[in-house]
Design the sequence.
């Protein structure tokens, strides 16, 4: 497993560049669908969480501010704005810009992917 858990919350940090905080949870963190798991993840991230109900599809939800969405050529036709709070419904990826929220993706039989561009201040999980 990548990184080290220095938080005691069961989250292992990974380096995706300056200004990007990324990590992988463990059983210690708990189920992120439950309030205690979300509370631990939120405490580690220091910002509100953006969660999705994952399906085996191609939908990416852009969870940035209105008008804050970059060119979504990579999002295909499934890129939508999700400006409000935190459960964005069915999606397989969450895109963010700038600080202020943490994208939370849960996987079982899929490989988790975290992408970030510290210069453009974009991240996707």
Sequence:
């Amino acid at each position: 497993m990548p990184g080290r858990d220095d938080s005691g919350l069961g989250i292992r940090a990974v380096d995706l560049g300056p200004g990007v905080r990324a990590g992988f949870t463990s059983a210690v963190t708990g189920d992120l669908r439950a309030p205690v798991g979300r509370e631990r993840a939120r405490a580690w991230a220091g910002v509100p969480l953006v969660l999705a109900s994952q399906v085996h599809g191609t939908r990416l939800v852009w969870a940035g501010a209105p008008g804050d969405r970059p060119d979504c050529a990579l999002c295909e036709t499934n890129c939508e704005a999700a400006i409000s709070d935190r459960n964005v419904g069915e999606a397989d990826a969450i895109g963010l810009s700038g600080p202020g929220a943490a994208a939370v993706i849960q996987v079982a039989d899929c490989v988790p992917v975290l992408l970030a561009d510290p210069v453009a201040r974009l991240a996707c999980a």
Remarks:
- Residues 35-45 form the longest helix (11 residues).
- Helices lie at 35-45.
- The chain has a mean pLDDT of 76.
